[in-house]
Recover the amino acids of this structure.
């Protein structure tokens, strides 16, 4: 059988926790030029990691992601103007301490990258970007803010970013911080002392579809390992496990969250990707807006749908979608078994006429036509329980 | 887990257990470990012909598909149907209950060219060294 690629990994970039992952016996993989853990045998591997996040709590090292700070304008509003020009969502709607999912687009309305925009201060923004597009994004931001009133700072190497995700994540993190986590709503953030580190960014964000937090601590090895170990100690009673990129992918797929180069790319536009709700044409000018207006008028040529396999087989990234007669009608962007659902699921681009729920779409798997149906997404939605108020009895 | 000395091994991490003109084929412990938890197996039908070095099926984990290559040529006499319901047996018992197919060998002498257990263990030790370089 294929033994898979085991390239000499001396050329790969490493996060501060790289040695720690290896000491834990993690299986490593090259992700976008980074030497990252894909799964941990000590966690019981992917399935166990996935289930831990859905039912308890798991921790991910996501330090490979990048961070761009836009601030330092001479006149108030300079940084906001830059962010508004670069991104499709309306950053002017953000309160200090609030974040939004957004994207940077090319002039033709396709994706440079997706991004989470955090409003740190009056006119101070942090863009968290993907690992594989770090350099491209930073160049893009610098190029497109030339002559604008703001400073662009690449803080990507400054942070070790840990994602603590799952229904018990808040309980774990609360043990380690003075910040009152119950006051932080989803997609909001604060700064507090975490593991003794003052002014640490604590964001209620994540890529799993569960409740959770991302914390940004200094990226030196000693601090990074200390924080990881303290998170583990705090999470022990909840069965916390280390989680790798394998589980990260199955979790985000079940929650229908886009992955760059799959659901979004420089060949796919905002409307096709179904990200309309994060695109605010009415906010005014931004890169890609003109093209989007035109594309909206032209109508969709393809749309992103969820698929569930009904015949035996696993649809995977890049597999062709066919109609009943075997004609190619689209492509799978991401596909995998769903640990939570016990089914094989996928996201795919198909013609608008085939996006109705229950439509049969065939996936070509090693030369065979295997039947799937269009289903609603997200495939999985977490149950949101009301956050406990003092004096309120909350059933477990 | 040791590597049974009566098996022969291919560079693609398959094992073959020859008994006269009939052989059982599976993937090795090294292979199942690299793959992770197996969730899906695709095997040929009885009567199908397999050819040395060509794929005859696939073993899938959550995150990857791995083609399986025939270590010898022949005709499939049995496919391990238990793996349809319980593919995870490949992880727990790759050398015994996790067998994939049985074949009637077209050319039993072919098997001689494969590695014995000691050679295979040396082969994977080399791979593990490369991977941690």
């Amino acid at each position: 059988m294929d033994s898979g690629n085991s390239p000499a990994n001396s050329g790969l970039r490493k996060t501060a926790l790289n040695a720690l992952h290896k000491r834990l016996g993690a299986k490593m993989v090259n992700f976008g030029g980074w030497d990252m853990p894909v799964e941990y045998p000590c966690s019981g591997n992917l399935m166990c990691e996935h289930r831990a996040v859905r039912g308890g709590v798991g921790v991910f090292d996501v330090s490979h992601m990048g961070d761009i700070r836009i601030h330092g304008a001479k006149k108030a509003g300079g940084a906001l103007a830059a962010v508004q020009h670069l991104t499709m969502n309306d950053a002017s709607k953000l309160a200090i301490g609030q974040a939004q999912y957004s994207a940077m687009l090319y002039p033709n309305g396709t994706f440079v990258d997706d991004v989470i925009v955090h409003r740190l201060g009056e006119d101070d923004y942090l863009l968290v970007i993907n690992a594989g597009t770090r350099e491209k994004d930073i160049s893009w931001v610098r190029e497109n803010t030339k002559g604008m009133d703001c400073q662009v700072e690449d803080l990507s190497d400054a942070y070790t970013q840990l994602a603590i995700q799952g229904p018990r994540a808040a309980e774990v993190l609360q043990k380690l911080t003075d910040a009152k986590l119950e006051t932080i709503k989803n997609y909001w953030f604060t700064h507090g002392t975490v593991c003794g580190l003052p002014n640490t960014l604590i964001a209620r964000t994540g890529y799993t579809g569960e409740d959770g937090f991302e914390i940004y601590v200094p990226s030196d090895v000693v601090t990074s390992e200390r924080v990881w170990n303290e998170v583990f100690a705090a999470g022990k009673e909840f069965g916390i496990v280390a989680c790798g990129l394998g589980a990260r992918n199955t979790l985000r797929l079940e929650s229908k969250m886009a992955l760059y180069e799959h659901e979004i790319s420089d060949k796919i536009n905002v409307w096709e990707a179904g990200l309309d709700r994060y695109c605010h044409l009415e906010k005014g000018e931004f890169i890609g807006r003109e093209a989007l207006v035109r594309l909206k008028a032209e109508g969709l040529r393809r749309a992103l749908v969820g698929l569930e396999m009904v015949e035996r087989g696993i649809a995977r990234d890049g597999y062709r979608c066919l109609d009943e007669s075997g004609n190619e009608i689209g492509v799978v962007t991401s596909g995998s078994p769903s640990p939570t659902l016990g089914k094989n699921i996928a996201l795919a681009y198909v013609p608008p006429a085939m996006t109705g729920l229950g439509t049969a779409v065939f996936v070509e798997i090693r030369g065979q036509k295997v039947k799937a149906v269009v289903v609603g997404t997200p495939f999985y939605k977490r149950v949101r329980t009301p956050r406990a108020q003092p004096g309120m009895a909350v059933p477990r | 887990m040791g590597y049974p000395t009566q098996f022969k091994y291919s560079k693609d991490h398959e094992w073959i257990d020859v008994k006269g003109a009939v052989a059982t084929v599976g993937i090795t412990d090294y292979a199942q470990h690299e793959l992770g938890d197996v969730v899906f197996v695709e095997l040929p039908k009885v009567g199908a012909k397999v050819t040395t070095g060509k794929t005859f099926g696939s073993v899938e984990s959550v995150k990857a598909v791995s083609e399986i290559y025939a270590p010898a040529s022949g005709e499939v006499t049995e496919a391990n149907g238990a793996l349809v319901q319980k593919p995870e047996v490949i992880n727990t018992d790759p050398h015994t209950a996790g067998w994939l197919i049985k074949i009637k060998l077209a050319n039993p002498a072919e098997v001689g060219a494969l590695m014995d257990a000691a050679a295979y263990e040396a082969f994977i030790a080399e791979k593990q060294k490369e991977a941690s370089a």
Q: What stands out?
A: Chain B touches chain A at residues 12-14, 27, 31, 34-37, 39-40, 42, 58-69, 127, 130-131, 133 (CB under 8 Å). The helical segments of chain B are 29-35, 82-85, 89-92, 117-131.
